[in-house]
Amino acid sequence: MPYSLSQVAATIDHAVLKPEQTESDVRENAAMCLKFGVASMCVRPCDIGLTAELLAGSPVNVSTVLSFPHGADTTATKVFQAEEAIRAGVHEIDMVMNIGQFRSGNFDRVREDIRAVSETAHSAGVLLKVIQESCFLTLEEVALACRITEEAGADFVKTSTGFGPSSATPEIVQAMVDTVGGKLGIKASGGIRSWDQAVAYLDQGATRLGIGSTQTVLEGGISQTAY
Q1: Is the pLDDT assigned to residue 101 strictly greater than 70?
Q2: How far is CA 47 from the centre of its chain?
């Protein structure tokens, strides 16, 4: 189906997560997010306060990453990070699943890790997305991670941090759609560099898109950047 620019923009979490980005970059990106009406601007935890000020009174949400990009923090640390983000004014949190624990087969530990952050987020009306970094998983493991995420009470499954060796793929997104489509939100993230890629993931069943080159994508260009 054809999509309007505003329809696609409304599905985008615009990523401002590179370590070298400055406060000036945050301000410029916030202005762009307001111009296009994206779903959220996803920033580093240290930038939540500034971003909340810049987006105040607008429909653009403030989102942040947690235990990024490896997911290896303790559960107590993740909960503390979530509490800090909530106090700073965040509306949505994208946490990284403990990839190593998942690949070790410690599924109960992974489930309880997600559940603890989910309960903290939901107590403040904040959405929780869980990043699998799916490039490290088989498609069967992607499906299992989706089921664990659903059992733990999170709101979205998400493919990638954008900083791993690979990003979203149609095969990974399809595994997510087949497993939790219609029950959880599905966020395709990383490596989305063109309008055609963006709308293909939406057609496939993704409900959010994580994009770092949002303006280029929305204007019909092809981004040459890594994220």
Answers
A1: yes
A2: 16
Catalytic residue among 47, 78, 113, 158: 158
Q: 224 is written with which tokens?
A: 């040459």
Question: Alpha-carbon distance 178 to 133, whole Å?
Answer: 18
Indicate if 183 belongs to the active site: no
CB-CB contact of 186 with 177 (8 Å): yes
Is 196 within 8 Å of 226 (Cβ atoms)? no
94 counts as catalytic: yes
- According to the model, what pLDDT value does residue 166 have? 85
How do the domains of the chain map onto residue ranges?
7-218
Q: So what's the pLDDT on residue 224?
A: 72
pLDDT in tens, 127-181: 999 999 999 999 999 999 999 999 999 999 999 998 988 889 999 999 999 999 9
pTM: 0.96
What pLDDT score does 70 carry? 95
Number of other residues whose CB lies within 10 A of the CB of residue 122: 14
- Give the type of residue at 51: T
Residue 162: which residues within 8 A CB-CB, separation 6 or more?
A: 15, 17, 189, 190, 191, 210, 212, 227
Q: Is pLDDT above 60 for 226? A: no
Indicate if 158 belongs to the active site.
yes
Among 73, 94, 113, 155, the active-site one is 94
Q: How confident is the model over 189-194, as a mean pLDDT?
A: 94
Query: CATH 3.20.20.70: does it fit domain 7-218?
Result: yes
